[in-house]
Design goal:
The complex is a heterodimer of chains A (about 240) and B (about 240).
Chain A (H helix, E strand, L loop, with lengths): L2 E10 L2 E11 L4 E5 L6 H8 L7 E6 L2 E2 L7 H7 E4 L11 H11 L5 H14 L15 H13 L5 E5 L7 H16 L3 E5 L3 H7 L2 E6 L2 E6 L1 H6 L4 H9 L3
Parallel strand pairs in A: 3-8, 3-9, 6-7, 7-8
Antiparallel strand pairs in A: 1-2, 1-4, 4-5, 9-10
Helix pairs in contact in A: 3-4, 3-5, 5-6
Chain B lengths: L10 H8 L2 H41 L6 H16 L2 H11 L12 H27 L2 H9 L4 H31 L11 H12 L3 H32 L6
Helix pairs in contact in B: 2-3, 2-5, 2-7, 2-8, 2-9, 3-5, 4-5, 5-7, 6-7, 7-9, 8-9
The chains are: A alpha/beta (about 240), B mainly alpha (about 240).
């Protein structure tokens, strides 16, 4: 297993957001998480990236427990990239510097090499002309594509995409999803929290419906979307008009 | 006002004792000479103040539980330094420290007056920096940490550069204030512009030197603020595309 979660629990105050969640993801698999707001999708991804410490349970990456208290999270985070709903580019740095910062400071690459990586990735995602721009000068879609490139530049083994199209105008969603399609082609393991049901159906190897801090139902997209077995899944899909 | 003031009954006397052309031209060069010392004190205190303030702000904003005692110490330090008037610290440190019997040049009131300025303004400006650090959204920290940057690297590359840009206007405000408070050091001895103006005033029984000193201060502080405004506007133009009218 590339990634495994066992009985993961996380509460904010008295509210249990993850209530004993179990999950296994194999290498190269693309797993989408759907569910209403507050069902724990974002928290789940943030816990896997160790941005939120879990209260109980175990998270394993390649069989190694990464959720141990006191473990240095930095070497683990290098292996797990995350892209946020709100892009979170560094506004005081050019596109190039946004990408090369962690390459030079965390991976210890020389400036030349880091710049080369940034340039080739930006070219691959049709952003080469934006290399000297600042985030404020880009559209939302471009910013989010740069954020994906920034995470990708670290050559992570797992990519976490946290509702990456939710803050975008409808017309900009397409260009970002195209990038994700291309990523899937490269064989990287991806965990995607999303409200884009059509996209989840198209891109996922497996879809998980989250409810009450657990996976209420999971299965191949075709099966889960057309013939859900759990009543809560049915209700949710009806609510989002899918 | 221009019409009304000259009609006041005692205006001619006030005019003679505050705005005497002769006294102004006589005192101006002397005051300008004395002002060099103000600039010197300002010039060597400012880098020390900024460094101390940054250190205090970073220590206070640190999230490492092991640094809790340091955070408490910093909070106490800032409270005490800010809670007492600058002039009192200049007296206490400027007269007190050399009083323990230090040898030259370590007993100079100039040195310890400057130290007092650094310690007090360091505390004021630390709070400015801390407000800047707090104003950077948590998601910036999340993005940086998620890329594998350590807490220290996140502070250095992501948080501080944004924080400092945001606090430049209040920072300049405090530096203008410092530029004026430098004159307080004169109260423990050194002859800088304010003291020189006092000497001239006493000698000629005329207040014009004070007006001249005020003009000299404005010659420095106004360009200082205008330059900051210009630099900030340029930075905004560089990093953003559109501006709302």
């Amino acid at each position: 297993m590339k990634l495994e979660l066992r009985d993961v629990r996380k509460s904010f105050g008295s509210r249990a957001v993850l209530a004993g969640l179990d999950l296994k993801v194999s290498a190269g698999e693309v797993v989408s998480f759907i569910g209403s707001s507050g069902s724990g999708k974002t928290t789940l991804l943030r816990c896997i990236n160790l941005l939120e410490p879990i209260d109980d349970g175990t998270i394993l990456l390649d069989g190694d427990e990464i959720s141990k208290i006191g473990l240095d999270p930095n070497p683990i985070r290098r292996r797990i990239g995350i892209v946020f709903q709100s892009f979170n580019l560094f506004p005081h740095m050019s596109v190039q510097r946004n990408i090369t910062l962690a390459l030079t400071q965390v991976l210890g690459k020389q400036d030349d090499e880091a710049n080369e990586i940034a340039k080739s990735l930006l070219t691959r995602f049709a952003l080469a002309d934006k290399i000297d721009s600042y985030p404020d000068q880009l559209s939302g879609g471009q910013q989010q594509r740069v954020a994906i490139v920034r995470a990708l530049a670290m050559s992570p083994e797992v990519m976490l995409l946290d509702e990456i199209t939710s803050a975008l105008d409808p017309e900009l969603v397409g260009e970002v999803l195209d990038v994700v399609r291309e990523l899937k082609g490269s064989g990287i393991t991806m965990l995607i929290a999303t409200h884009e049901m059509k996209f989840a159906q198209e891109i996922s190897d497996r879809v998980c419906f989250l409810d009450g801090g657990r996976i209420a139902e999971q299965g191949q997209p075709q099966q889960l979307f057309t013939n859900p077995s759990d009543e809560r899944t049915r209700q949710f899909l009806r609510r989002v008009n899918f | 006002m221009i019409i009304a003031i000259p009609r006041l009954p005692r205006w001619p006397r006030v005019k003679e004792s505050f705005f005497s052309k002769e006294r102004l031209f006589d005192s101006f060069p002397r005051l300008l000479d004395a002002f060099v010392l103000d600039i010197k004190i300002f010039a060597w205190s400012t880098p020390a103040i900024i460094a101390l303030a940054l250190l205090l702000a970073i220590a206070r904003s640190s999230r490492n539980p092991a640094l809790f005692p340091i955070r408490i110490f910093v909070i106490g330090y800032i409270d005490i330094m800010r809670g007492v008037p600058v002039i009192l610290w200049i007296y206490l440190i400027g007269f007190g420290v050399p009083g323990v019997g230090l040898e030259r040049p370590f007993n100079s009131p100039l040195l310890w007056g400057s130290v007092a300025l650094v310690l007090t303004y360091g505390a004021y400006i630390a709070e400015v920096f801390r407000a800047g650090i707090d104003s950077v959204h948590e998601s910036q920290r999340a993005a940086s940490r998620s890329l594998g940057l350590s807490n220290t690297q996140t502070m250095r590359f992501v948080i501080l550069p944004q924080a400092i840009r945001r606090v430049v206007p209040p920072l300049m405000n405090d530096l203008v204030s410092l530029q004026k408070d430098v004159a307080l050091v004169s109260l423990i001895g050194p002859i800088e512009i304010l003291r020189q103006a006092g000497i001239d005033k006493a000698k000629f029984a005329n207040f014009t030197p004070y007006v001249a000193a005020a003009i000299i201060f404005l010659m420095i502080t106004i360009p200082l603020t205008r330059t900051t405004d210009y630099l900030l506007a340029r930075e905004r133009r560089r990093t953003s595309s559109t501006r709302v009218r």
